[in-house]
Amino acid sequence: IPSACETCHPERDRATLAADARRLWPGLLGERWSRVRERARAFAAARRGDTTAIEPLLAIVRDTTQEAAIVRAGAVRLLAFAGEERRVVDAWIEALDQPEAVVRSAAAWA
Asked: Is the full-model pTM beyond 0.85?
């Protein structure tokens, strides 16, 4: 996962930055943040063209109860790296029926 902290603190190693983050934000390892980290891993993998990102991205697109519309729209667009794989096309078609315009427009773009 790309580290935003390294942008301002390039001299510090990731282990130290992670320890500092846990100290500053004790809830960082909780359930909510676990989901955020998994999402970040999937998005980063998709940007690298890693096919292991497909299933997590599909789950994000279809999770209308816990994922924000803008996050689902991002996942829809990131799935474009997978080409016209059937399960991806099916998810795009399903996304066209989601209530939020941002998700539908991402699906139309895809």
From this structure: no
Dmax of the chain from CA atoms?
47
Long-range contacts of 66-73 (CB under 8 A, 24+ apart): 66/35, 67/39, 69/98, 69/100, 69/102, 69/103, 70/102, 71/39, 72/98, 72/100, 72/103, 72/106, 73/100, 73/102, 73/103, 73/105, 73/106
**Residue 2: is its pLDDT beyond 70?**
no
d(CA 14, CA 30): 20
Taking a C-beta distance cutoff of 8 angstroms, is the pair 85, 57 a contact?
Answer: no
Q: Which long-range contacts (CB under 8 A, 24 or more apart) does 55-58 make?
A: 58/87, 58/88, 58/91
69 touches 102 (CB < 8 A): yes
